[in-house]
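Quick note —
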Amino acid sequence: MERIYKMMPEVEMEEAYYLDNLLKEKSDQQVREFLAIYRTRRRDPQLTLLTALIGFLGISGVHRFLLNQIGMGILYLLTAGLCFIGTIVDLVNHKTLTLEYNQRIAGDLMIMMRV
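Predicted structure written out below.
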């Protein structure tokens, strides 16, 4: 996990642990290549939090679009964040939503790169 933190200090503990398990048998060069692409595709939990807060200004669901949940984004947009209840729940769970997205991206990237 130490090499993940050295190469990507912005990741949180759970994400670093997941990436470390995913890349534990890979060389440093392979890990660097993977993380260079992964860094451009991952989402930051703070970005998810900020875009969820936009839901209280009348444009709900932006964070769901960013997390590639188009159906939920449209639903939130049309229902004012499910009457703001869904937006509040997403504010509480923003780290989990982002971690799930990032794990999905890392898995897809592993398949694509065949690292």
